[in-house]
């Protein structure tokens, strides 16, 4: 069955389009709000945190390096994230750092 083409099909076309929008992956991600809740930054571009410990993270295949990283607890919500590389050498435990 095709879509209605008559004079009195505006409501059906509009409601069908509204229902079908939710099958689009980008639309669903933008309008559900769960992607924002799952983001530790909460939609912000920067966040401050406190360094908990220095850790080594193994690189993905085919490399076999150990990257220097730090474990950081964010001040705004208490979530713990692993911060990569930049300025890790200078950071000691319990120091403040900013993540971009």
TrEMBL record:
Keywords: Ribonucleoprotein, Ribosomal protein. It is found in: Rough endoplasmic reticulum. It comes from the Eukaryota. GO terms for molecular function: structural constituent of ribosome. Residues 1-28 are annotated as: Disordered. Its main location: endoplasmic reticulum. Coiled coil: none annotated. Residues 1-20 have a biased composition (Basic residues). It holds the Pfam family Ribosom_S12_S23. GO terms for biological process: translation. Component of the 40S small ribosomal subunit. Part of the small subunit (SSU) processome, composed of more than 70 proteins and the RNA chaperone small nucleolar RNA (snoRNA) U3. This is Small ribosomal subunit protein uS12. It comes from Catagonus wagneri (Chacoan peccary).
